[in-house]
Design brief:
This protein starts with a strand and ends in a 10-residue tail after the last strand. Helix 6 crosses helix 7. The protein is about 40% helix and about 20% strand. The chain contains eight helices and twelve strands. Bound molecules: alpha-D-ribofuranose.
Length: about 280
Amino acid sequence: TKTLGTVVSDITNPFFPQLIRGAEDAALERGYLLMTLNTDDHVDREQRALSLLRARKVDGIMLVMAPDSQDASHILATQASGTPVVCLDRVAEGTPLDSVCVDNVKGARMCMHHLLARGHRRIGMLSGSVGLQTALQRLIGYQEVMRESGGDVDERLIRHGDFRLESGYRLTKEMLLEPEAPTAIFASNAMMGFGALKAMRELGVRCPEDVSLAVFDDIPFGDVMQPRLTVVAQPAYEMGRRGAQLLIARIEHEDIPPEPMRIELTPELIVRESTAARPR
Ligand code: RIB
């Protein structure tokens, strides 16, 4: 059918349109169209998306896995039925699936070293749901750097959100109202970072004068917001592009190694205005 399926968490999250755009540009170069579905990070919706796409006889699927999809049996069944699957952004560890992702631990480590270099020691972590591999890896990067810098990890500074704005807002309010509030916050994605800014504004906390903020995910307006956001930028467009190219190579049986390929892209720290020296 010269159609590819793309299954993402939530197209209203600005990370995913960049990824879809890269996939579509690469697909159109080879005469393929995209059909996109959202899972809202629910495995049952993921399973339904895969069966809908198979019913529509797409030639292949790019999948951003929902949490707890680590039981990838429904994904492997799709692949076994003759519809190749390439995982984007999140990788089903230990399963024979092609993937294109980012080195999330490296990205989180770069961000944490930047905050430590600005003198911060009490750094709050707004984590995504740890059922998501990207959230888990960013948390690992946070914990590793905190331990290596001689500070022990204060569990009260780690709050588990769901990658959505509301959780970032709620958890930031909780953290900033505690005694010994953090002087900096690292948000595991941009949407929770926006929630953090909303909470700061509501509490009359200035960013970065009172509390610094760094987020994972660059988004088109990160450079326009007040304050301009310090981010760990993911090559989302490139991820989508490389994913579509790899999927089409599988569909058209191009001469590539049969064993699953794991392409890991490199994140970039972009320092702007939302991180400053720790207040005296
Ligand atoms: O913002 C959504 C997050 O989910 C992004 O950071 C992306 O990496 C995905 O895991």
